[in-house]
Amino acid sequence: MGNIYCTNCGASMTDDSIFCMECGFRLDADVQPARFTETPVSGSISAGTANKVCPFCGAAMDDDACFCCVCGKRYEEPAPFISVPDSPAVDPVLPAAEERVCPACGASFDDDSKFCSNCGYLFEEILRRCPLCNAIVAPGSNTCVVCGNPVDTGTVIAKPEETAEPVICSSPAAKSEPAVHVDNGGITEKELRAAERNFHKPPKL
Amino acid sequence: MQQGNLGQMTYTVDLVFCIDATGSMNPVLNMVKENALSFYTDLMDALNAKGKRVESVRIKVIAFRDYLEDMDDAMLVTDFFSLPDDTEEFTDTVKGIRAFGGGDIPEDGLEALGYAIRSEWSAIGTKRRQIIVLWSDAPPHPIGFGKESKYYPEGMANDFRELTDWWENEQNGYVNRRAKRLILYTPAGKEPGSYDPETEYPWDNIVNNWNNVIHFPSVAGGGLKEIQYQEIISAIVQSI
User: Fold this and answer.
1) Is the CB of residue A205 less than 8 Å away from at least one CB of chain B?
2) Residue A148 shares a structural domain with residue A121
3) Segment B185-221, tens digit of pLDDT
4) Does A171 have pLDDT greater than 60?
5) What ipTM does this complex have?
6) What is the rounded average pLDDT of the residues A102-126?
7) Is A17 found in the same domain as A59?
8) Distance (Å) from the C-alpha of residue A194 to the closest C-alpha of chain B?
9) Are residues A102 and A121 in the same domain?
10) What is the residue range of A191's domain?
11) Residues of B in contact with A201 (CB under 8 A)
12) Which of A25, A51, A75 is the last residue of a domain?
């Protein structure tokens, strides 16, 4: 893959780019961008080095890119968003859904949404929840605004109901079993099956 | 099947184990399970020591709980296991019984006894024995207590008097007067006169008024702390 340069601003880009990630200029098919075959310029986009994702189309972006080279939309840092209860009477664990807005386009979103239905922003990338009260924690914040609990800024916390393992038995053996383990009081599977096989409802008297 | 010697009387022994399988029975249930592993061998050894020749031994198990509390798990029965052929299946089945439920302290042991009496006893052998062994750490509900449950059986004895008739009246054809034995491992009653024995402590009423009953008192409500297994074996052997 060779490198090309934006005919508008001269920024480097990969030869499969449709838009310039620096100025957003669309590289129309009839406009031949400047093409060089020398040693690739550092900073070209690759899946392995990109840390930023276009909130509109999901394409990988350079950290310093202002525009997506695939869809051409301008990239803006997500605005911090927090959930604030209407009043003290509102359950702080699950704030009202309409109070949360997409950091990319401002549209409201549902609590369980993974993507913004308006612009496709991937919420899960930034969504964290307070482990104490389950409220959504603003990106970059290290404190829950609902309960004040310190929150690890580096960890994305999924909702408890999504991560809770349905382990009933806490015996060491159960830890290595992926399925739900029920303590049968030392009864083996063979014995349980025998009991199930041989016990039945009493016959009519 | 063992072949009897000429002129030697052979026995056909049918056993019905009625096991209280409610939560409080958990400690004793494990002991019953352990004993089940060696039950046939121990019984045969004891009988041989007495010079008694057994042609057939069959064991049936009834696990009982509480109709109002445990619904369709309140009464579970097996068919007869023929030992020694079915020893492994019998043992696994007994060991597979889980102790749970029960609700209040009394359980539906009288209904279990009713089912045991109405078992399909063997009709072969020159001399038969029909032995019921019932383990419980609790007094029974009055018979019919669980009638509100949709799982309560039709045709069960309507009251204690009818249940007594099932045991005592040979004309019913349920148990044989000479063959029947009932071994109770149940709590002893309160002081005589302090309760209605027909409704509160039927175990005592059975012990005092039914024929061919052997009673090993246990402690009510606290679980059977110790099963005198050898005493039960001995009682069975002596009753044959």
Assistant:
1) yes
2) yes
3) 888 765 555 556 555 678 888 988 999 998 877 654 4
4) no
5) 0.86
6) 63
7) yes
8) 5
9) yes
10) 165-200
11) 72, 75-77
12) A75
A44 shares a domain with A110? no
Q: Quick check: B79 and A195 CB within 8 A?
A: no
pLDDT at B172 over 60: yes
Cis peptide before B84, with omega less than 30 degrees from 0?
A: yes
Nearest to A191 among B61, B72, B92 (CB): B92
Name the residue facing A205 among B79, B89, B153 (closest C-beta): B153
Check CB contact under 8 Å for B96 and A194. Answer: yes
Residue A98 has pLDDT above 50, yes or no: no
Is there a domain that residue A133 lies in?
yes
Is the domain of A95 the same as that of A140?
yes
Domains present along chain B, CATH in parentheses: 13-238 (3.40.50.410)
Provide the number of structural domains found in chain A. 3
pLDDT at B106 over 50: yes
Name the percent of chain A lying above pLDDT 90. Answer: 6
State the average pLDDT over residues A80-95. 42
